[in-house]
Amino acid sequence: MVAELSKLRDQIDDVDQQMVELLARRLALVEEVGHVKSKHGLPIYAPDREAAMLASRRQEAEHKGVPPDLIEDILRRTMRESYSSENDSGFKCLKPELRPIVVVGGYGQLGGLFCRLFELSGYQVRKLGSQDWDCADDILADAGMVVVSVPINLTEQIIAKLDHLPDDCILADLTSIKSGPLQAMLEVHRGPVIGLHPMFGPDIASLAKQVVVYCDGRHPESYQWLLEQIQIWGATLNRISAIEHDQGMTLIQALRHFTSFVYGVHLAEEDPQLELLLSLSSPIYRLELAMVGRLFAQDAQLYADIIMSAPQNLAMIKRFHQRFGEAIEMLERQDKEAFTQAFNQVEHWFGDYAQHFLTESQGLLRQANDSTHRGKKG
């Protein structure tokens, strides 16, 4: 038995080595593709091309008796690495005549990410940090665009200092709230203004498939090139009003982060053995626990600013608290009929998305389970 297994495993190892060689060849080809896209100003992410390629490979896999989901998983993971590799080729500069771009807060993580993207696109970039305000007038004097990337609680205060920019300079911010900062920029600067909210953190390897929300401020014709540049980086743009944006962020960010915060506080107070919880966890609970734990691996001040950034956040959290209390009362009554009625109401609200999210989450759970190691420590 041992000899038979050894022989088969040797053959598997040989196939694995061939796979590594093929992946290396694919990444080399991707590098060449990156150079071509950079030269011609093509986005690194082409959704139609990706969808057509995946459909073809799934069909071929099924014809050969290989599970199509397996091939798609492999290709999606490979493409994610490919998008990161394409960054190294740089990007076409859509506004080569633009004067220097100044990133206020460019020494921070998110500001630094955008500095890098602009530099990869061939723009001259300057950073303005908290230690540079003594020479800020010189740094800003000939700016073609100023991007504000500072903590939420400082954003409007910093914007107020930018009152001597050239009239044709584009003023933008990267804040996760938009109404206040956008209005502050419009009041302090008479030139082009745009509000941006990157819906991702600074630790991403590529903007492919990421979303950047933007709110028009003034003279949108002056910053269309910027929106196109962001698309070349791979991101998808979502245009929305500042008010609608902030209303959405109340649910997407403030409420979600607050409930994760409270659940984390509850766990810490209950003080269970974390290793025991993990050993008993299904993939979905492990994933939920990971998302909560992820919050506490980051900057407390950042999340405090997000949650406390607007009065409507507190109002939404209070309404959630009220509904939570009503649900507890339902449990106390052991009212399964009311539970079922509420459940069906929510199911109706989700509509077709419920089944879509079920399928999507199953893929995520498979990935979470694949990364789980259940072996003994040693």
TrEMBL record:
Keyword Isomerase attached: yes
Pathway listed: Metabolic intermediate biosynthesis; prephenate biosynthesis; prephenate from chorismate: step 1/1; Amino-acid biosynthesis; L-tyrosine biosynthesis; (4-hydroxyphenyl)pyruvate from prephenate (NAD(+) route): step 1/1
The Chorismate mutase domain, residue ranges: 1-90
Primary location: cytoplasm
Catalytic activity: prephenate + NAD(+) = 3-(4-hydroxyphenyl)pyruvate + CO2 + NADH; chorismate = prephenate
Tagged with keyword Isomerase: yes
One GO MF term: prephenate dehydrogenase (NAD+) activity
Gene Ontology cellular-component terms listed: cytoplasm
Protein name per its UniProtKB record: T-protein
Organism lineage: Bacteria, Pseudomonadati, Pseudomonadota, Gammaproteobacteria, Vibrionales
Gene (UniProt): tyrA
